[in-house]
Design brief:
With 187 residues, the chain is mainly beta. It has three domains: 62 residues, SH3 type barrels (Roll), CATH 2.30.30; 59 residues, OB fold (Dihydrolipoamide Acetyltransferase, E2P) (Beta Barrel), CATH 2.40.50.140; 57 residues, Nucleic acid-binding proteins (OB fold (Dihydrolipoamide Acetyltransferase, E2P)). It contains no helices and 16 strands. The protein has a six-stranded antiparallel beta sheet with strand order 1-6-2-3-4-5, with no helix packed on it. Strands 9-8-7-10-11 form a five-stranded antiparallel beta sheet, with no helix packed on it. Strand 4 and strand 5 form a beta hairpin. It is flat, with a radius of gyration of 20 Å.
Length: 187
């Protein structure tokens, strides 16, 4: 499906210069003279390259629809990750770098969504938010609780996040996987 250059949104999958690209960021710019354009930061889903491209409103680009399928994460073997199709129980191995920084949040048995292009997996989506336990948090400084400052904490998977002052070591919290930010206390 062809779309206009100004209709590109983050998360869109585009076919550009013979590759499949995922849009990371966009910025609409309207200079004093000349036409408006969309500055688009994209990542190639096949080889991981990144690029910045300008698209004008007159430009059209092919938007790709990917098939999605539910998989379950089983285990890691060297730098490969093993996933199981939840319908056929067929197992596949994918490189860990396909997940990027989100790989730290993978847990045994976690349900993930694989995006397939022409029957080949090209990206893995984890749940947006996961629960994690804090193993290390700085002590609260007297008077700090009155302000809206955050303090660093380390999760059980080694990821560092900023948390409110009242959160202590051993607390279960909800974390945004892709932003690596504190969302709230786990219920």
């Amino acid at each position: 499906m062809k779309i206009s250059g100004v209709d590109i949104r983050p998360g869109n999958i585009l076919e550009y210069e013979g590759g499949i690209w995922k849009v990371a960021k966009i910025q609409h710019t309207q200079p004093g003279k000349g036409g408006a354009y969309m500055q688009v930061e994209m990542k190639n889903l096949q080889d991981g390259r990144k690029t910045n491209v300008r698209f004008r409103s007159a430009d059209t680009i092919e938007r790709v629809r990917l098939d999605t399928k539910d998989f379950q994460y089983l285990y890691a073997e060297d730098d490969m990750l093993v996933f199981m199709d939840t319908e056929t129980y067929e197992q596949i191995m994918l490189p860990a770098d396909l997940l990027g920084d989100a790989v730290a949040f993978l847990e045994d048995g976690m349900q993930v969504l694989l995006e397939l292009w022409e029957e080949k997996p090209i990206s893995v989506q984890l749940p947006e938010q996961v629960e994690a336990t804090i193993v290390e948090a700085d002590a609260v400084v007297k008077g700090q609780t009155a302000s809206s400052s955050y303090k660093p904490a380390v999760l059980e998977n080694g990821v560092r996040v900023m948390v409110p002052p009242h959160i202590e070591s051993g607390t279960r919290i909800v974390v945004d996987v892709y932003e690596r930010t504190y969302v709230g206390k786990a219920s």
